[in-house]
Design a protein that fits this description.
heterodimer; A: about 625 residues; 44 strands; B: Jelly Rolls; 7-stranded antiparallel β-sheet; 6 helices
């Protein structure tokens, strides 16, 4: 075909014009689009996010139409600080724009399910590749490490596990499922559910180290500043993280993380900030391992009713199958919304719920300057927020923590540097008395809302050879230390402290100021009497009524309320904000917190106790994806 | 000849809207491609020699055997595979294959068995020094592994994963190993029958800037199968009953899309529209990239 010079010039001009139109919208539609289109309107959408990213220039907005997109989606894109590239879902509704790594035949419903054992409700279908997370219609199944374990619901540690689960027979290439027999999660037949079985998880002890693209649904590659915003997607069953950020300067917002071991992951952990992913913001997202919490409660109630037997007691928390006791450490649910946090991450306004933990050691270990603010953390099997092993300059404020078994943890296992400084302030914690009492009654172990201590592993574990000459008589949190102030904690039936180090080892640089603690007692450990922590101007109230060492927590200038106020305690489950407004500690004097002056203006001038600094009305934070 | 055949075939296919045939062009771009259709000759005159796994150099040569295969729907699948009996290896000492920079290994394999303890070498290139291989695609306990050595003294980069997919016997797999200097070593594993991604693993730690192209030890052999050249035994030998349907080497880091295209299976709708039957399509596509056509 001959092409005239004039036509060629016109074509070149048109192409140039098209590329100059880069600063604008690019549309993707997996169902109707084509990568041969120009992508400049919904009617001429591209088919793949990859192609849109390839064409994107700084300042562009990629809008992805509703539908299902199979990952991993591996992108190399860079915006600029003043012109970030945005990748957004056309709808932020849950399951509107899904990026999944689920096995296609299972998810598409074309796999043939076989009823293996009707009496057990045991089904099987082909699945060649290993899997780490399996969901049925969004319900997360406990992994079991053998077919026999699944048949008996016995976890690897010999304790009872959740009453629904999966086992993958790698050799036979088959997936076995037992769905909950009660019907509370729908049919017991997997063929009547949408089954999402993700790929294997990542590398390392906890499977949380990046080792290939199956690790993520959406990967943002490159080690430098990326300036990318991800907005509104539903991420489903990746190997580990919904979003993997190789570089820095990324915002992930308004997204849903289902069957994700973590929501957002950095590239690696390191004490060296040049090696990590930095300045990442995770906001207004929803992270869940539903129904991890309900499974725990069910096991507790089954034990209470004498319907399950626990293994010979080595450790009272027999319901920790999802910690890794169920099918090994590489499948542990002890993860949380983030992984491999570097410097200056911000985690705010997220709804983190029905999970094992909110932010675990695998996220925090070498974090620096992490802000955890205005999140709702609800129904968590272990800790809401951990600071171990080496988190520095961590700031936790404005969060609402509901029914987390032990909300805060300072429990390093990696020796020095110890976590710190850690600032915890202006949070409201609330656990139902029913929960603390059920746990206590069934296991003989009572939760504490602050878990702290450095066990001997910090000196004796093989990975802590650097600690052999370090004295063991004291652990000192560096810098301003652990500064816990102006929090209000409703923890009826539970205790303040769970100490995880011997009584002769003292805490240094730990301060509790202006807090309100409503709990059954100071600590279940009767030899615990303060451990060299500093307490001042705190308020203590017993719930239920008691007399167990509340005065230690109240400290100098503090108060122990003479009686628990049954009126506001009774109403607690209805309106925590109203309870705070009418609380009996209103008006009690607080004290300045100069140790927090570096991170909170006016900290030295605080004069109130409890959440709601200096009389400001405390509100449950807005959290989770916005419409 | 090839051009005439390609034009004759491709035009009607394009007119029929079969836009998903991507595997064949990538194979055309390979530095060496072996189809194993009754011979062990490769493109660009990169022919292999069958020898015993314990043999030094290229003699005495063995007579390779081939097995007829069926049931592979991949667009670039053939009808024969070269057979391994637990003693043999395929070698070449062509300097073209002593690559020091970016490269991609790829093969389609069906294992006779999966040794529970021993390691198996699938594709390797020998080293400059009497230490480690320059580049090696291996399997231990059914899990794929990749190794790189800049100068042959140590493995600088090791790609292993205790959680990775465990290969099974009597199953077809497409396996690639890619090396991007100073950047990444990566393995991808596809199901040859469904074209689905089974595993993908990579490491970015200690990736050397180059691999020595020296040939002091092992004369720089490129090998399909056992990596021992000398008399020290037959470790890493490919198990008896293993079939390799085809294999290829590129002197570039193929893209993810290109790797995926090598395992693409025809879409039923497209095939049903075709004037040619499915078997004819496979045959035609194979002709398009076969050594005989290229050399014609």
């Amino acid at each position: 075909m001959k092409v005239s010079p004039r036509a060629a010039i016109i074509a070149v001009v048109l192409c140039g014009w098209a590329s100059m139109a880069g600063a604008g919208e690019i549309y993707v539609d997996g169902k109707k689009g084509s990568d041969a289109s120009d992508g400049r309107s919904p009617e001429h959408a591209l088919a793949t996010i990859q192609e849109a990213a390839r064409r994107a220039a700084p300042g562009d907005v990629i809008t992805v139409a509703e539908g299902l997109y199979y990952g991993p989606i591996d992108l190399t894109i860079e915006g600029r600080a003043d012109q970030p590239i945005t990748i957004r879902a056309a709808s932020r509704e849950r399951n509107a724009v899904i990026i999944t790594n689920a096995e296609r035949a299972l998810r598409g419903g074309t796999s043939q399910w076989v009823l293996v054992d009707e009496s057990l409700g045991l089904y099987s279908a082909p699945l060649a590749r290993p899997t780490c997370r399996v969901l049925y219609s969004g319900v997360d199944l406990q992994p079991y490490d053998s077919l026999e374990a699944l048949k008996t619901f016995i976890a690897a540690d010999g304790n009872p596990g959740p009453r629904h689960g999966y086992y993958h027979d790698e050799k036979q290439g088959r997936l076995y499922l037992r769905l909950h027999a009660s019907g509370k999660y729908g049919s017991t037949n997997p063929a009547e559910h949408l089954i999402s079985a993700g790929p294997r998880t990542g590398g390392g002890y906890a499977g949380n180290n990046y080792d290939g693209p199956l690790f993520f649904n959406l990967g943002l590659r490159g080690n430098g500043p990326l300036h990318v915003i991800v907005d509104g997607f539903t991420f489903e069953t990746p190997g580990y993280a919904g979003v993997f950020v190789g570089g820095s300067d990324v915002i992930v917002r308004n997204s849903w993380f289902l069957g994700c071991r973590a929501g957002v992951s950095g590239r690696r952990e390191s004490a060296d900030a040049s090696e990590t992913s930095n300045r990442i913001t995770v906001e207004y997202c929803d992270y869940s391992q539903y129904p991890a919490f309900d499974d725990m409660v069910e096991l507790l109630e089954l034990k209470k009713a004498g319907q399950v037997q626990i293994a010979e007691a080595k450790f009272p928390l027999f319901w920790w199958s999802r910690k890794g006791n169920g099918a090994g450490s590489a499948k542990t649910y002890e993860t949380g919304i983030c992984n491999l946090v570097g410097s200056d991450w911000v985690v705010r306004h997220n709804y983190i719920h029905d999970a094992f933990e909110g932010l675990s050691t695998w996220a925090m270990r070498w974090s620096r300057g992490l802000v955890v603010a205005h999140n709702r953390l609800e129904r968590l099997v272990d800790n809401a927020l951990e600071s171990e092993d080496h988190a520095s300059d961590m700031r936790i404020y404005g969060n609402y923590i509901l029914n987390a078994v032990e909300p805060f943890s300072w429990q390093p296992l990696g020796g020095e540097p110890w976590p710190g400084p850690v600032y915890i302030y202006d949070n409201v914690v609330r656990s139902d008395q029913f929960l603390n009492q059920l746990i206590t009654e069934v296991s003989g172990w009572t939760p504490g809302w602050f878990k702290a201590g450095a066990s001997k592993q910090n000196w004796e574990a093989t990975w802590n050879s650097h600690m052999k000459d370090i004295p063991r008589d004291v652990v000192r949190s560096p810098g301003d230390g652990v500064v816990v102030f102006n929090n209000t904690v409703f923890f009826p039936g539970g205790e303040f402290l769970t100490r995880v180090q011997p009584p002769e080892r003292k805490f240094e640089n730990f301060r509790f100021l202006n807090n309100v603690s409503i709990a059954a007692g100071y600590s279940r450990q009767q030899d615990s009497n303060g451990e060299n922590m500093e307490f001042t101007h705190n308020v203590w109230a017993y719930a239920p009524a008691g007399s167990d060492r509340g005065q230690i927590f109240a400290g100098a200038g503090g108060a122990v309320l003479s009686t628990s106020d049954t009126s506001w305690m009774a109403e607690m489950s209805d309106d925590v904000e109203a309870i705070l407004r009418g609380a009996p500690w209103k008006g009690l004097p607080g004290i300045g917190v100069p140790q927090a002056a570096a991170i909170l203006a006016g900290a030295g001038d605080i004069r109130t106790v409890g959440a709601g600094l200096d009389g400001r009305e405390w509100k449950i934070p807005e959290a989770g994806p916005r419409p | 000849m090839k051009r005439a055949v390609t034009s004759f075939i491709v035009l009607p296919l394009l007119l029929l809207g079969l836009g998903t045939v991507q595997g064949a062009p990538i194979l055309d771009e390979a530095l060496a491609y072996w189809g194993f259709e009754g011979n062990i000759n490769g493109t660009n005159s990169n022919n292999l020699t069958a020898v015993a796994g314990t043999t030094q150099a290229l003699t005495p040569a063995l007579t390779p055997s081939f097995t007829s295969i069926s049931g592979l729907p991949s667009l670039n699948a053939g009808t024969q595979a070269v057979s391994f009996d637990g003693t043999n290896v395929l070698k070449t000492n062509d300097p073209d294959l002593r690559l020091g920079g970016a490269q991609t290994f790829w093969l389609r394999i069906n294992l006779g068995s999966v040794p529970s303890a021993a390691s198996v070498a699938f594709m390797t290139r020998s080293r400059a020094n009497n230490g480690q291989r320059g580049i090696s695609l291996q399997m231990t306990n059914g899990r794929l592994q990749g190794y790189l050595s800049a100068d042959g003294t140590v493995y600088d980069a090791q790609l292993t994963n205790a959680n990775s997919f465990v290969l099974q016997a009597a199953t077809w797999y497409d396996i690639s190993l890619r090396y991007d200097p100073s950047n990444v070593l990566r393995i991808d594993l596809y199901d040859s029958v469904t074209g689905s991604l089974l595993d993908s693993m990579e490491t970015t730690t200690n990736i050397p800037a180059s691999i020595s192209t020296g040939n002091g030890i092992g004369s720089g052999y490129y090998q399909l199968g056992s990596l021992n050249n000398g008399s020290s035994g037959s470790a890493f030998i490919v198990p008896n009953g293993t079939l390799i349907e085809s294999a290829a080497v590129w002197n570039s880091y193929l893209s993810d899309v290109q790797i995926q295209s090598l395992s693409a299976v025809p879409e039923p709708k497209a095939v049903s529209m075709m004037v040619f039957g499915g078997a004819t399509l496979v045959m035609v596509l194979r002709m398009m990239r076969s050594p005989a056509v290229t050399q014609g």
